[in-house]
Amino acid sequence: MFESVGWGEILIIIVAGLFILGPERLPEAAAWIAKSVRKVREFATGAKTQLREEMGPEFDQLRKPLEDLRGLRNFDPKRVVTQHLFDGDSDPLGLKDVNGTNGANGATNGASKPNGYPATAAQPEPLKPGERPPVDPDAT
Fold first, then answer.
1. Which residues lie closer than 8 Å to 89 by C-beta, 6 or more apart?
2. Nearest 5°: phi and psi at 108?
């Protein structure tokens, strides 16, 4: 309800209240406002609870589309397209480590060649002492 009210506006209201009501009546007015806001919140909570009891499981079905609409408030087209097309991958093309550097420290990770192209397939593990290489049946 008061999402658009900033600290500057609140300060102006307090100063105006101080001039209009005076320092003697300002604490009483603040207490009355706090009590009234608390009462309104209790009424809203009671109405919500009563509505939930009367509607039963239909209340949750009604709430789901409203929550979906609330999610549209934070609509970001770039995020939606990335999530839809690339399953949420923030770097779908692998461009973050183009030069083989790993983030801000600049250490090379060997994932790509200096020219920016991906490195070839991983090299097989070296043979252990006494082990012979596998024989390729097509080579003979």
1. 82
2. -80, 140
Tens of pLDDT, residue by residue over 40-79, are: 999 999 988 888 888 887 877 777 777 877 777 767 777 7
Residue 129: Cβ within 10 Å count: 4
pTM for this predicted structure: 0.37
- Please check whether residue 116 is in contact with residue 99, taking contact to mean a CB–CB distance below 8 angstroms: yes
Residue 72, C-beta contacts closer than 8 angstroms, at least 6 positions apart: none
pLDDT tens for 1-40 read: 566 778 888 889 888 888 888 888 888 888 998 999 999 9
3 to each of 16, 17, 34, 68, 71, how far by Cα in Å?
Answer: 21, 21, 18, 20, 16
CA distance linking residue 131 with residue 31, whole number of Å: 86
